[in-house]
# Entry
Amino acid sequence: MRDVISDSLGGLADRRSTWLARRELMEATPSGKRWRGHVRGQLYHTARHVHDYLRPTRFFRWGARRALALDITELTVSFPDLPAAFDGYQILHLTDLHLDNLDDTAAILAECVAEINSDLCVITGDIRDNIHAPMAPLIARLAHVVSSLEANDGVLGVLGNHDSAAMLAPMEDLGIRMLVNETISLSRETEQLHITGLDDVHRFETSDAHAALETSPDGFCIALVHSPEVAHRAAISGHRLYLTGHTHGGQICLPTRKPFATGLKRHREFASGQWRFEDMIGYTSRGIGACVIPFRLYCPGEVVRVTLRRGEMQAN
# Structure
């Protein structure tokens, strides 16, 4: 990543060490509030058994082809306080890759992003589907995607609820600057754009994530969060743009694109597409891969390119 990006907080190594110990404990500790032992967790594991049973079938392959037909969404967002040097700045937003679920996901995504130029790429979590799956094949697939990206200022990432703490170092070895409840600043001429990235707030929410939002610097701030569930906190702390995923837009929807389920504890109204909360614009991407079952219905996956503009606040 180019040196236009600098860490705005000190003691990164110490904070990472503390975070890592807590995150690993949370991953290993089942409770009524987390994955195993929870009704949703039981449904997840049942669905995974169905996935494994269907995998050798022609029906599975048909569903996988449909699930990986990606849209490219162009979104323009305008803000009167956007620093003039960033007028026209383009951010490629990728989320919910689930690269270990369907074998062709990485190849299809790499081919798609190779045709899209941007200033910055951001990945907002759920790079993997199975948090306990082997790491090496996953990282190899992610490397294929990253090598295809054309982003002048590099790649930023945050973890999702399917991602393990052990992924952080291998992802940074690929050149992805991972944000763990911290803010970085991008500089152009004499102006700056601040980006706050949080660890997952769906399964692994902590007070550190809240504090990272609340202590972000003055100026124009963008939040990268795996799910929309802390949108209210980001808006109150002055963030202007919130890029997120997690929901897959529902993945299985009615013909009206209304989802059967969103997987959200809060802000279900922000399950898909563009939305606004007070003085903040948000976009919840439908994501790229499929979670557990290899199907999408009335809800195609998407790659989103966001163009920042200086002007009256709006999104289109």
Notes: The chain has one domain: 5-28+35-315. The first strand starts at residue 5 and ends at 7.
